Amino acid sequence: MPEEEGLNLPQYTENGHQIVAPTYETTPNDPLWKGFRGTHQAGVQSFNDYEITTEIALQGGICTIINENDVHEDDQLDFYVIDKNDVLELFSTYGLTVGVDVLELGHFVRDIYVYKRKDLNFVRNGKMDVVAGLFLRVGYKSGGSIDIKTSIEIIAEEKIV
User: Fold this and answer.
1) Domains, the chain, with CATH or none
2) What rounded mean pLDDT belongs to the chain?
3) For labelling, which of 8, 29, 81, 85 has a CA lying 20 to 30 Å from the CA of 51?
4) Of the candidates 111, 112, 121, 130, which has an alpha carbon nearest to the alpha carbon of residue 51?
């Protein structure tokens, strides 16, 4: 099949099978699975931040509610990539202060209700490069009276530089 510039042509595996959806097996490098645990305060919106220590291409993640029986029906989950230490040197551009402000670079999961859901899977259509020093942020808005414990697993391709 001739390649034509500007067209989104199908991709094929080395065995000649058409790739119809990105899979973890089609990444150039083996995917990295990394886990984080956190506790979210009852009755308020709280955030847990996890620093990325090596450059990755973020593909998605899984959030498991450890104590799912304690989730209130109005509880919501959010997932972000943020810069809080001016790693990208953009704070002065936006008038932000290190140690006070946060620059949101991506907000991939928005207001997902978690009631009666133990595992929430999130996979991006594509990847987001995340450099070392940025943070993954899990936001949890609680309507209940019991702290919620979460386990986060990210799926990423570790960048080889």
Assistant:
1) 29-158 (2.60.120.380)
2) 85
3) 29
4) 130
